[in-house]
Hints:
With 102 residues, this protein is an all-alpha fold. Helices cover 53% and strands 0% of the residues. It has helices at 2-23, 29-45, 51-65. 0% of the residues are buried.
Amino acid sequence: xxxxxxxxxxxxxxxxxxxxxxxxxxxxxxxCLDALFLFSLIWSIGATCDRPSTVTFNAFLRQLxxxxxxxxxxxxxxxxxxxxxxxxxxxxxxxxxPEVGT
Length: 102
């Protein structure tokens, strides 16, 4: 019973965040949506990582958001698989991750 309750509570958290975000008047809707996207990305992909992979994912995501990951398929910074190139969007997210430790 407690496991089911915990799982249901875990699923309700993002719903509550979206509901709260919709009730708060935000000057820049794009910033709010970018923040919700980053939250979802981190907690969905990051949740599948073990501890060493979490550190690598953190470093990769921070560099990717800053536009500092080598876009070419042959890279030495992160191994994303054979022949995978990165296409950066015309506009980067308006929300950036806070500095490590803040």
